[in-house]
Design goal:
By secondary structure, this protein is mostly beta strands. It has helices spanning 63-68, 127-131, 165-170, 188-198, and strands spanning 8-18, 21-27, 39-42, 45-53, 56-61, 79-84, 103-113, 116-122, 141-144, 147-150, 158-163, 181-186. A hairpin with a 2-residue loop joins strand 1 (8-18) and strand 2 (21-27). The longest helix has 11 residues, at 188-198.
């Protein structure tokens, strides 16, 4: 369980293919606090630490994860939003994030907002998926590359988010351009409500 409050940007320092799996080796400031089997969200994808070596750690992504996320596009040197699992004895500053990416979207537009920026993301709309809660609502929550955000101006297949300078500087939103593919996790509460209504 995560909150969508990114701790920092980790750097990809190694990528190894093992059949359909990919092992990603990353470097970040809290590597020495990690343990084997610990969960860490990478661009919003929950992955398990499988190896520790000096100031780096390694996680494995399987085919299902690679098909649903942008992790398969990563290259050595790329920066990844990382967040360790949520402590249950503190404030929930973001929203409930499972680390189970639903699909990818792409950046359609970036607009200046007097110091902040509006990012518009578009995704493939599927009516059946929407009935199961895979959609956005105005002022609702969405996770983009692991960042907990508030939805603005949603349509059937797109939405906007407003990014303040702090978030732009401390997440890989600073690397997003028009056409960049990002990971989406829709609000789990919306999915449960949609499921209950379908019963």
């Amino acid at each position: 369980m995560f909150s969508g409050i990114v701790e920092e940007l980790a750097t990809v320092v190694g990528i190894t293919h093992d059949k359909d799996n990919i092992d990603f080796t990353l470097k970040c400031s809290f590597t020495n606090e990690l343990g084997i089997d610990q969960s860490v969200a990478h661009n919003g994808v929950c992955l398990t630490v499988v190896k520790l070596s000096g100031d780096t750690y390694t996680v494995t992504a399987m085919r299902e994860t690679l098909d649903r996320s942008n992790l398969g596009l990563l290259k050595v040197g790329n920066r990844v939003n990382v967040e360790r699992s949520m402590l249950m004895n503190g404030r929930l500053d973001g929203h409930i994030v499972q680390g189970h990416v639903d699909m990818t979207a792409w950046c359609e537009k970036i607009e200046d907002a007097d110091g902040s920026k509006y990012f518009t993301f578009k995704y493939l709309f599927d009516k059946e998926m929407a009935r199961r809660g895979y959609f956005t609502v105005d002022k609702g929550s969405v996770t983009v590359n692991g960042v907990s955000l508030t939805v603005c101006n949603p349509t059937e297949d797109s939405f906007q988010v407003a990014i303040i300078p702090y978030t732009l500087e401390h997440t890989n939103f600073c690397d997003i351009e028009v056409g960049t593919k990002v990971n989406l996790e829709f609000d789990i509460l919306g999915k449960y409500i949609a499921r209950l209504q379908a019963l």
